[in-house]
Fold:
Amino acid sequence: MSTIKDKHISRRTFLKAGGALVVMAGVPLELAENAARAIAAGTFYATPDTGTLASWLTINADGTVIARSSHVELGHGVQTGLAQIVAEELDVPVHSVTMILGNTDVTPDQGGTFGSQSIKVAGTQWRQIAAEGRAALLKLAASRLGSPASQLTVKNGVVSNGAQKVSYGQLVQGQVLSWVAPITFKGGQNGVLGTARPKDTSAYSIVGKPVPRMDIPDKVTATATYVTDVKVPGMLHARVIHPKGIGSTIVSVGSLSSSVKGAQVVRVGNLIAVLAQREWDAIKGAQALQVTWSDWNKLPTSTNVYDVLRTLKTTDRVITNRGDAAGALASGEQKLEATYQTPFENHGMIGPSCAIADVRPDGSVTIHSATQYPQGLQKDVAAMLGISPNQVRVLRYEGPGCYGRLSANYDDAASEAVFLSKSVGKPVRVQWMRADEHQWEPHGPGTVHDMKAALDASGNVLAWWHEAWMPPVNDSTELGASLAGKPIKSTGLGGWTGPDLYTFTNSYELAHGLPELAAGDTPYGFGLRTTFLRSPGQYQITFAQEAFVDEIAAKAGKDPLDFRLQHLTDPRAIAVLQAAAKAAGWDARPSPKSGASTKNGTVTGRGVAFVIRDGTYAAAVISASVDPPTGKVQVQNVWLAQDSGLIINPMAIEHQIESAVLQTVSRALFEEVTFDNANVTSLDWKSYPILTMADAPKVMPVLINHPEIPPTGTGEPACNVLASAISSAIFDATGVRIRTLPLRSDRVKAALGA
Amino acid sequence: MDDQTERPAAESADVPGDPSSRGDHARRAKVAGGIGAAAVVAAGVAVGATRLVKSRQAIPEGSIRVNGVDHRVQSSADTPLLYVLRDELGLRGPKFGCGLGQCGACSVLVGNKETRSCITTWTAVNEDVTTLEGLAARWAKEKSLSAAQAARTLHPVQQAWIDQQVPQCGYCQNGMMIMAVDLLAKTPAPSEAQIRSAFTNTPPSPHLCRCGTYMSIIAAVQRASRAMA
Structure:
C-alpha cells in the first residue's frame, strides 16, 4: 500500500478490490474567483463539498478511464474526439477512455452541443483537466517509485522511472482517491487556468489520428439507445394535437369514440393530447378526436413573405462601416445592384421529436430526451413547473440528427410531456408525428439581402454594400410550456453572423433585425418559430455575399478565384482557397465560360466560395450541370478545403465535411417551408423534398492541419460555401444568375427561359 | 458488463437509470466493433420468444415470425408492423420516421423484400420478418457458420457500415442497411448508378438520410458486395 504524501490527494476509503482516482474540477462559479486568487498565491483553495462538485474524470483500478461531459454525441464524433484529447493528455490508449455524456446527475455543465463549441471549448477544457489528472497520477507514482515526478515517463498508462514501472491502475488499486484539480474556467469561454502543463502538440500520438467513431458499432447493430427506444414502467404513449393556426386556441373538444379503447384525452390550457397504453391507440385516438380551434390567419404567406419582411419594424445594427461606401457608390463608373432571397427552412429531423417525462408526486422529475443541452432543458423544465433544477434529472440519449433544432428550444416534446405527465401522474412519452415536426419545428428564417457595388473603369472595387433583413435565428420558446399557459421565455435572437471578409476600401454592411413573424399577433408570444439551423445567419449572409462577389468579379472580367485572392490578406484564407482550387484543377478564366448557353441542352459550370466560420476557414470549388429545358441542377463534384487549426480526428472531420456538403446541397437545391396565412403547409417529405441519393455529389475533402493553432469548429463551416458556389456554377454554365433559394428546377427553368 | 450483454433487447431497452450502466454500454460499443456482436445475435432470438421454429413451419394464426422466432401478437389487427416490433417485441432496429412510407427508417425484410413497417399492418405479413437485429443470424444461416463463428460475425453489410464509418446520427441507417441487403440479394455486384437508383427509385419512396451520408453508403454497399462475393 502506498503512502500518499501529497496532502491534496485525499484518500476516502480503502477497498479490498477495485479502486479509483476521481479528478474533480467543477469549480462552482462563485468559487472561481477565490480559486483563481488561491492559484495566483500559489496555494490550493479548500476542497469544496464534493456534493456540489462535478466529478469529471475517474481513473479506475482496471486501467480504464471515465470522463464525463454535458456535451452529447450528435453523430459528429464528439465522443471520440474528446476521448482522444483525454487519452492523449493522460498517456493512455484511446479505447481505455469511456465518455459519459449528457446526464445531469453526473456530467458537469460544459455548455450545450451547438455552435461548433464541443472541441473548441469543451475540448480545450478537457485538455487541461486531463493534464491535471496526469499530474495527480504522477504525484502518486513519484511517491510509489521514490523518484521525483519530473523524472517519470508515461506510456500506455504505465509510469516508469527508467528502472521500475507502475501502472495507473496499480496506483489506485484498493483505494478511492479524490483530487480537486486547481482549475478555473474564465467567463464561459475556452480560457482555462490550471497548474499542470498540457503536452506540447508536437508530442501528440493520439490526437490527430483517424480513430474510428466509438458510437458507430452500436448504431449499426441496433444496440444504441435512442430516446425513442426508452421505455419506463407504467408509461403512457401520447399524441399531441397541435393548433390549426399558429395562434389558434381551443374552442371545443369532442369526446373520444368508444371504439378507441384505453385512450384518454388530457388537456392543459391549449395543450391537448390523447394518451393510451398502446401507441397505436394513442395515434388512432388523436386522429379521431374532434378539436375545434379558433381561426387565426395573421401570418404572411411564403409567397409574399419577402415583400413583408421589408415592411416590418427593424432594429438595425451596423456590421461594417469602412471608408465612405455611399459616396463611392455614387461616384463609381460601373454599378451593380442585386437582391438575394433565402427561404424559411426545416431542420428536418428524420425522426420527429420524442421525449419522456416522469413527474412524480414527490416533486422530482426525470426527463428522457435527445436534447443538445441537458442542463439547459433541466433549467427550463424547473422553470415550467416552478421547482428547483435540483429536482429535475435529464438523461440524454441518441436521437435523430437535429442540426440545432434541439439546441436552444431544448426539446419541445419534453416540454409537452412534462405537463401531460404531471396531469395524469404517470410517465408520458410524447412522440410527434411527421406533420407535427414539419409544421411545428422552429424553422430556419427566410431573409432578404440588397447588395450594391461600384467599380472604377478598370474594374477595381470602389464600394461594397450589403443590407440584410433577417427575422431572429432563434426564439428559445418551448412549445408545450407556451401551449400550457406557462411560457418560460421568448426572445428573438441573432441574425447576421460572420466577419467582413474582403479588403474593399469602402464597405458598409447593415443588419435589419426583424421580429419573429406574427409573434405579436398570437396569444402564445411566439409566431412562426425559429431556432438555430446549422450555421444560423451565416448561411444566409454568406450566400448573398459570396454570390455577389462573383457578380462583381464577372463585371470586372476577372477570374472569381483570383478576384478573391486579390482582396484577401489573411494567409490562412488564401491557403484554403488555393488548396480547394488545386484539388479541383482550377484554371483561371472569368465567368461565364465561353459557350455558356441556355439553348444547347445540358451545360456544365463551376463555382468557388469562401467563408470564415467559428474561427475555421473553408473554401469550396464545385462543378455542376444545368439542364435548361427542365431546370434541373446536378452538383457533381465538391472539393472542400478546410483549416480548423489543430486536427483532432481527420477521419471524423472528413465525414463531417461530406455530411455538411450533402445537407447543404439539399438546402440550396430543394428546400423551402411553405405557409399560408394560418400555418406551415409543407407537412411531409413530398411537400418538403430533400436530397436523395440520386443527386448526391462526390465530395473531396482537403484538410489543412495547423497543430500550433487551437482547434475550432468543423460542423458548420462547410455549410456556408455551397449555395453561392452552385448559384455561380449555374451562372458559369448559362450566363444567368439566380438569386433566390432554393435553386429548384421550376425556378431555374423559369429563370433560364429556355 | 457480461450480464448486460446477455440481457434480451426488450429489457435492455428499459431505462439505463444507473449512470454506471451507461459507461458499460459505451464500452460495449467498442467490443461490438472489435470482436463481433454476440449481444446482437442474442437479442435477435431472445426477445419475447415463444419458441424457436424451423423456417418451413407455417406461421401460427395471430402470430408473426421475426428473426426466426414466432411471436403471438397482442396488438389490434390494424396496427402497423412497426409498433408491434418496437413496442411488443422491444426491437430497436426499425425506427419511426414518418408513418407515411416516405423515408425508409422503419424498413424490415419481409421474406427477401425491403418493406416499410410503418404502413404495413402486422396482419398483412405472411412471411418471415428480418429486422436489423436479425441480419447477422440470417447471414450466419446462409453461410452455415458455426455458433462460435456466428457469435463474432456481423452481416457483411453491417461490417461494411462500420468499416466505412457510414452513420452520423444513425437514425436512418436501419433502412439503409435493410435496403442494401435487399439490393445485394438481387444484384450482387451493383454499379454506383444501380445503387443510387435502388435507394432512390424503389417504391414507395427514396430512402432519406438527413445527415448527408449517401456517398458513404454507396462506398459501403460496394464494400459489402466485395465481402459477400
